[in-house]
Amino acid sequence: MKKIFGLIGTTVKGGIFFLLPLALIFVLLGKVLEILEPLSASVQEVLDPGERYENFPYLFSILTLILVCFAAGWIAKLGAGQKMIRLIEDNVLSLFPGYSLMKSTLEARAGVSGESNFPVVLVPIDGLMFGFHVDTLDNGDFVVFIPGAPSAWEGNVVIFPENQVTNTDYKQDVIIDIMRQLGTNTNSTLLKSLAKNKAK
């Protein structure tokens, strides 16, 4: 009974961590569109005085948001932009648990090459466990983050000698999917991942 309640609690907690970022995105988008609404109304008075297009304010706001995101992405690629991002990440965002892992996973899903896409390894804990090689010590030992299930943002940091760590060709976002699914369809998920990597 205790195990069942523990599983339910872990699953609910994983669901919260999954829904929270989505809710935050929708709230932020709503606020941005709300801020842009007066501007879009002013533009409509000039371009569409008869208000023939009822959805003009929403379309204008969305287009403006896309252009702002494009400009921000372009600035982020510049040297000054990258320094500013690193400063914010090192001093603010790094305080949030799992930020680096979440960031690299989202970058992988979006097809953006990130610096912190951690290699997937296998480590000997009660058999073999998936882990992310997050750092290497001066003596050559590997620092490995062992993700939990169903929430991969929670887990343990364990240090292993290099000879106990097995490197893999699996991708970080694939392993996070497996954790979220509590290991179901692991074989097919890994096979699809390897086939996709070979096709690239």
Automatic annotation (TrEMBL):
The chain crosses the membrane at residues 12-36, 56-76. Keywords: Membrane, Transmembrane, Transmembrane helix. This is DUF502 domain-containing protein. It comes from Algoriphagus namhaensis.
